[in-house]
């Protein structure tokens, strides 16, 4: 099984970082307002960045890192934020 750490951006300019086993389904859920109270404030969420992992522990560790100042800096350097 693969795991994905992803960053999405809403039409209004909000960003969200998460982890999932099924990236396509999870983006659909964000756009329908399912499971995440935080992303209900935005519309038309698009994936702007993702990474794939072979195990959940690595993905969770990377998700925490992406939510840190270091991860946000990486996205800025890539021109994504």
**Which CATH architecture?**
3-Layer(aba) Sandwich
Question: Stretches where pLDDT falls below 50 for ≥5 residues?
Answer: none
What would you give as the CATH superfamily?
A: GIY-YIG endonuclease
Q: How many DSSP-defined strands?
A: 3
Profile the largest sheet: 3 strands, antiparallel
The percent of residues in helical segments reads: 25-40%
Describe this structure in words.
The chain is of the alpha+beta class. It has one domain: GIY-YIG endonuclease. The chain has three helices and three strands, in the order E-E-H-E-H-H. It has a three-stranded antiparallel beta sheet with strand order 2-1-3. The longest helix is centred in the C-terminal third of the chain and has 11 residues, at 56-66. It is globular. The chain starts with a strand and ends with a helix. The mean pLDDT is 95.
Keywords, separated by commas or semicolons:
81 residues, 3-stranded antiparallel sheet, single chain, alpha+beta, GIY-YIG endonuclease
List the helices and strands and how they pair.
Elements: E1 3-9, E2 15-20, H1 23-32, E3 46-53, H2 56-66, H3 69-77
Antiparallel strand pairs: 1-2, 1-3
Summary of the model, kept short:
37% of the residues lie in helices and 26% in strands.
């Amino acid at each position: 099984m693969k795991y994905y750490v992803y960053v999405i951006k809403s039409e209004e300019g909000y960003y969200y970082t998460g982890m999932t086993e099924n990236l396509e389904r999870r983006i659909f859920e964000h756009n329908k307002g399912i499971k995440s109270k935080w992303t209900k404030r935005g519309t038309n969420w698009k994936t702007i960045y993702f990474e794939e992992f072979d195990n959940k522990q690595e993905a969770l560790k990377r998700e925490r890192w992406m939510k840190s100042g270091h991860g946000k800096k990486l996205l800025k350097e890539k021109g994504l934020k």
